[in-house]
Structures are given as C-alpha cells and as structure tokens.
Amino acid sequence: MKDSIDFGSMEIPRLFRKLLIPTVLGMVFSAAFVITDGIFVGRGVGSDALAAVNITAPLFLINTGVGLMFGVGASVVASIHLAHGKVKTARINVTQAVVVSSLLLVAYSLAICLFAPGAARLLGSSERLMPLVLEYMYWFVPFLPFSALLSSGMFFVRLDGAPNYAMLCNAVPAVINIALDYVFIFLFGWGMFGAALATSLGYVVGAGMILVYLSRRRNVIRFCRVKTSRRSLRLTRRNVGYMCRLGLSTFLCEGAIAAMMFTGNYVFIRYLGEDGVAAFSIACYFFPIIFMVYNAIGQSAQPILSYNFGAGNAERVQSAFRLAMMTAVLLGLAFFILTALFSRQIVGMFLDEVYPAYGIAVGGLPLFASGFVFFAFNIVSIGYFQSVERARPAMTVTLLRGFVLLVACFVALPPLLGVRGIWLAVPCSEVLTAVAVVAIFRRGARRARY
C-alpha cells in the first residue's frame, strides 16, 4: 500500500514523479467521473438536463472547496509537524480536520435540502428547468459530505506515503459511477434521479475507502482520540482556524469555478436562453477537468514543498516549485491545442448536432480554452504560496482571478464583443491575474535581495 518516499532527501524529480503519476491518474479517474455524468445526461436525458446539472454545479463546488480547504490546510500543518518529528500532533490535526469539515457539510446539505426551490432560483434556474434541477438536487445534495471527505482524505493518504492508494480512491468511485450511470439512465430509464444516485453512491464508496485507510493503526497518518475538555476544544478551534486560513485559497479556487458557473449561467441565459446555458455547461464540464490536472500537479508538489519548507531547505523548495510550474504550463499549452483542434468532437460527446446548443459550444470552446496556460500558471502559484505558509498572497491571487476580475470581465466584455465576449471573460481574467502573480514574485525577489 505504501511507497518508499523520503520528502527530505530523495531527488526532487524522482520524488515529484512518484507522487505526480498516481495523483494525475487519480485525477483522470475523477475527470472520468465528471465527464461521464455529462455524457450520459446529455445523451440519455437531453439538452435541458445538461443545463439543469450546470445550474446545481456551484453547490457541489462549494462543498468540494470546503473539503479541499481542510485537506490542504491540515496537510500543510501536518507536513511541518512531521518534519519536526511531532507525529502525534500531525494525527490530531488530521482528525480535527475530518471531524469539523464533516459536521459543517452535514449542516450545509441539510440547509440546501430544506430550501431547495429557493436555492435553485438563486442559482439562476428558469421555470422550464426547475423540475429537472430539483430532481437532481434532492438525490445529490444529501451525499455531499462524502464527496468532501474523499477530496480531503486523499491529501492525508498521500502525506502518509501512499499515492497509489489515493489513486484507487478516485478510480474505484469513477468505475462505479460509470457503470451505474449506464444502468440507471439507459437500462432503467431513471433520468436525473439515476444520474444523481450513481454519482452519490460512487462518492460513498470513495469516502469509505478513506475512512478505512485512516483507521488503520499501522499507518503514520491516522485517526486518533481527541480530548473534549474545554482546553482541548479551544486548541481545536485554534488549529482549525489556522488550517482554514492556510487552505482558504483552495476553497476560493473551487468557489471561483462556482462563481464562473453562477455568473456565466446568468449571462448566457440572458443573451442566448436555455440553449446558451446548455452550451456553457459543456465548457463547465471541461474546465474542472483541466483544473483537476493542475490541482494534481499542485497536490503532488505540496508535501515536498511543505516538508522542506519546515526543514528549512530553501533550495529543494525552489527546485520542486520550478518543476511543478514547468509541468503545468506545458500541459496547459497541450490542452489548448487539443481543444482548438477537436472542439467538434468534444462537444459531440455531450450533445447531438440537432440541438442548437451544439453550434454555440463548438464556436465558443476554443475561445474559452485560450486561457488554459495562464490558468495553469495561476493555480500552481497559489499552491506554492499555500505550501510555504504565505496565505495572504495566495488569497489575493485567488480573489483576483476567481471573483474580482472574473465578474468584471463577464460584465464588461459581452457589451463590447457580444457572445464572443462571454466566452473570453474567463481567459481574460486569468491573463490579468497572471500579471499580478508576476508582480508578487518580483516584489518578493526584491525584498529577498535587500
């Protein structure tokens, strides 16, 4: 189950490769998880169903963001404690993260289910899409805590030196989801209910695998008993607050995708109606997949960066960062080229040519993909800032790319460029953010010299 990994002495390229390959493969399975839903819903239920899933997507992304926030924050803190030989403290941090995040997300899911129609309207659903949106929400939202546990738990499994097991935690749910999607939608004809249930059951299995791993006493990173005295609860609150501060940028990265979908849904439905939202949903299925790959690169570099930062080895920190950045940028360029060349084939996986949304998506997807290289640069930079406990620049960059500049571009570009401006809003915000990141690095370099 475990690999031979030494974060402090193994050669950086070899160490990064041992973490990257299973992590990327795990993310590929996660991507299959996401894209399969879109293909089966689009092909098996229709264009409106695809738009309905996109309406609910921000709820899932916020949930995943919470899981990743606790995963990154606890993993960074635990990595530094392990570098100092404080194994029990690292276990306590992991246990606190899992318990507190699970309680928060149970409350979140319950609140959404109680006020589902109002939440659907707030997310931009039209009356035509409302029945499909609610059907999907009622069978997906209650299982969100399992999804978040799967997202956070893989950080702890990788930190314990088992990236291959973390990959399986992605692969097994993906295979279950693909099989059940086919059975529930095409064989049983369960429509949106079947799609939601297939996804939810996959997440339950993945979360169960995480719980099994973290409960094994032979593992270094595992659950431990946490005291419930008043003093211990105060320390838990302090520790959780610090983890959240370190991981907040990751939460905001997921929140940024949610904001992109939320804002884009409103703008597309205003300019092009439900067909525009259906076309945009294909980009929204595609975008998190690209994000998963970049996130895999950042997650692979994170324990290397954090451990060596805690050990005071600046040269290894910089070497790992440069390798992660080069990998991400080259992949970003490859993703853009592939999207531009095969946009028809990509859209065709989700929708038949008879739907009006097909033509809208084929014309817009290459424009949307033009920002992938800058997206890669920004995501890896945010991961670096988090890993070396620079929470402020990480949060600044995340807020710029995901909220401030994104909303500004969605507001400003459509009146100037029409529909092309909607598709170019996200790439434009990534380019402007990359300029800000370069300025932050240059400022840090000047301070280091003086």
Automatic annotation (TrEMBL):
Gene Ontology terms: cellular component: plasma membrane
Keyword check for Transport: yes
What biological-process terms (Gene Ontology) are attached?
A: response to antibiotic
TM helices/strands, residue ranges = 20-40, 60-82, 94-117, 137-157, 164-187, 193-214, 240-264, 276-297, 323-343, 355-385, 397-416, 422-441
Example of a GO MF term: xenobiotic transmembrane transporter activity
Name the predominant localization: membrane
The protein's UniProt keywords, in alphabetical order, are: Antibiotic resistance, Cell membrane, Membrane, Transmembrane, Transmembrane helix, Transport
What membrane topology term does the record carry? Multi-pass membrane protein
The entry's localization annotation reads: Cell membrane
- What InterPro entries is this protein classified in? MATE_fam, MATE_MepA-like, MATE_MepA_subfamily, MdtK-like
Can the keyword Transmembrane be found in this entry's annotation? yes
Pfam families per UniProt? MatE
Which stretches are annotated as coiled coil? none
Q: According to its UniProt record, which protein family does this protein belong to?
A: Belongs to the multi antimicrobial extrusion (MATE) (TC 2.A.66.1) family. MepA subfamily.
Put simply, this protein is called Multidrug export protein MepA
Q: Supply the source organism for this entry.
A: Alistipes dispar
